[in-house]
């Protein structure tokens, strides 16, 4: 069986944080209204409905437990929820007990909240069950300047500090210290799209579209979904006005596009196949999208040839849909081998139960397997970027990098020669496999 390729980059954003000092006073004035019609409250202001207790625990190990083991762990953690209480509408934790954890899992979100804490504080917000947007005492007396507390709250402290990556900021610390004095309410906003995080603290963006690393397994991208957790860490902390909006596909795609950069040239006018060549009879234009005709195949590729480039696009898969992205296609031959094919595949469909790793969506076909589990539901438009630098190809799907490899250094899988893996110039296109896979919003930036 054959499977095809997609190409992707990466995008994400969010911002907010603040501190507090001396014993936290009871609220005097009404909380600042941060609710909007678009957001829904995560707390009802009365009790802990919708939340449970969960300690700092590896989600992969949790998933591997049998039901009885998970129930036992949950019972033990829930027994510590006495350390959490709702007081005059505020959520208060005394610094002990399991983390307060949403019953629901979330993917792409826009979260707003306010927090207030004390001297020596050390807390945070886990996203998708992963640490964390940091909250702590940023004063010298707090005793953690050696860990970076002097740089302020709101950073992705559990990231490994790698500096710049592909020209994009990838750090564990916020860009500015925006914490308020102890006793004041800090306003925090977090936006998560794919593996990209942006944080605003007290109205200033301090983390701008940074990759949130998978603390539990740094060889894997951040999980696609998971709970929100409020960390307890030895000092009292209060939260209020926790408001969340789950980003829909259109919002997420718009955010991803906005972080893609400039100087992209549109390569599909939404009306015709002008600018394209190859098996044009096997493709049609419908609703501003290029669609492979059902039970037809072949390669459709650009008139222009490219060396280093980034392509951005959206695609929609029918159930079991199969296509691919041709990289550096020479204009003839089998794109899977005479070029590099980035798979475009509904790899979660039951018909692909025996799929080989190198055939999964986003894989460099017969060369490099992609990370799985980041496709949207069938029928939704996925956003993808593929960045090509020489023979290095990076595929980012819905904001998460699922493939990043040098095709020339990969050992071909299956024994068939792969002359295209070392090509550094050629056409970009699609590799049809009889399924009505659709593509739209196509643009390329030459490097």
Please explain how this structure is put together:
This protein has 447 residues and is mainly beta. The protein has 2 domains: 12-248, Exo-inulinase, domain 1 (Jelly Rolls); 260-446, Exo-inulinase, domain 1 (Jelly Rolls, Sandwich). It has 4 helices and 29 strands. It has helices at residues 59-64, 67-78, 249-258, 335-338; strands at 12-15, 40-41, 51-54, 84-87, 90-93, 99-102, 109-117, 122-127, 130-136, 163-165, 168-170, 186-193, 196-201, 204-211, 229-230, 237-246, 265-266, 276-278, 283-286, 289-292, 297-306, 309-316, 322-329, 340-345, 382-389, 392-397, 400-406, 426-433, 438-446. The strands form 5 sheets. Strands 1, 2, 4, 5, 7, 12, 13, 14 and 16 form a 9-stranded mixed sheet that branches. Strand 19 (283-286) and strand 20 form a beta hairpin. The protein is elongated.
Query: Can you count the helices?
Result: 4
| CATH homologous superfamily designation of the largest domain | Exo-inulinase, domain 1
How many strand units?
29
CATH class of the largest domain: Mainly Beta
Roughly what fraction of the amino acids lie in strands?
Answer: 35-45%
Q: In percent, how helical is the residue content?
A: under 10%
Instruction: Count up the domains.
Output: 2
Question: Could you report the average pLDDT, rounded to the nearest whole number?
Answer: 90
For the record, the CATH architecture of the largest domain stands as Sandwich
Separation of the first and last Cα atoms: 35 Å
Unreliable spans are: 1-37, 164-169
Radius of gyration: 24 Å
Specify the biggest β-sheet.
9 strands, mixed
What coarse outline follows from CA principal-axis ratios?
A: elongated
Q: Provide the structure class.
A: mainly beta
Which fold name corresponds to the CATH topology of the largest domain? Jelly Rolls
């Amino acid at each position: 069986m054959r499977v095809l390729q997609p190409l992707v980059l990466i995008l994400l954003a969010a911002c907010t944080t603040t501190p507090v000092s001396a014993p936290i006073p009871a609220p005097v004035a009404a909380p600042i209204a941060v609710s909007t019609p678009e957001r829904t409250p995560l707390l009802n202001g009365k009790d802990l409905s919708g939340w449970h207790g969960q300690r700092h625990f590896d989600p992969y190990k949790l998933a591997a437990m049998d039901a009885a083991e998970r129930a036992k762990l949950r019972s033990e953690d829930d027994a510590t929820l006495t350390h959490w209480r709702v007081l005059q509408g505020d959520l208060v934790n005394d610094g002990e007990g399991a983390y307060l954890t949403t019953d629901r899992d979330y993917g792409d979100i826009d979260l707003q909240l306010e927090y207030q804490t004390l001297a020596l504080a050390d807390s945070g917000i886990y996203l998708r069950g992963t640490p964390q947007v940091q909250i702590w005492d940023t004063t010298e007396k707090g005793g953690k300047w050696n860990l970076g507390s002097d740089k302020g709250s709101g950073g992705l402290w559990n990231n490994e500090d790698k500096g710049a990556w592909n020209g994009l900021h990838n750090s564990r610390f916020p860009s500015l210290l925006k914490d308020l004095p102890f006793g004041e309410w800090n306003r925090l906003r977090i936006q998560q799209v794919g593996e990209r995080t942006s944080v605003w603290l007290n109205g200033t963006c301090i983390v701008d579209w940074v990759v949130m690393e998978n603390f539990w397994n740094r060889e894997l991208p951040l999980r696609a979904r998971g709970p929100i957790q409020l960390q307890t860490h030895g000092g009292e902390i209060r939260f209020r006005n926790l408001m969340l909006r789950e980003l829909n596909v259109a919002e997420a795609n718009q955010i991803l596009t906005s972080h893609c950069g400039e100087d992209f040239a549109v390569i599909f006018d939404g009306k015709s196949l002008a600018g394209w060549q190859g098996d044009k009879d096997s493709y049609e234009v419908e609703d501003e999208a290029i669609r492979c005709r059902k039970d037809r195949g072949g390669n459709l590729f650009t008139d222009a040839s490219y060396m280093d480039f980034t392509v951005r696009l959206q695609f929609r898969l029918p159930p079991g849909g199969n296509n691919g992205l041709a990289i550096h296609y020479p204009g003839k031959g089998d794109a899977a081998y005479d070029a590099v094919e980035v798979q475009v595949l509904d790899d979660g469909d039951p018909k692909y139960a025996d799929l080989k790793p190198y055939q999964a969506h986003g894989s460099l076909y017969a060369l490099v397997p992609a990370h799985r589990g980041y496709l949207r539901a069938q029928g939704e438009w996925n956003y993808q970027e593929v960045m090509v630098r020489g023979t290095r190809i990076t595929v980012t799907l819905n904001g998460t990098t699922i493939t990043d490899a040098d095709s020339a250094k990969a050992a071909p899988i299956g024994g068939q020669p792969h002359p295209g893996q070392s090509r550094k110039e050629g056409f970009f296109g699609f590799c049809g496999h009889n399924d009505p896979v659709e593509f739209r919003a196509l643009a390329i930036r030459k490097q």
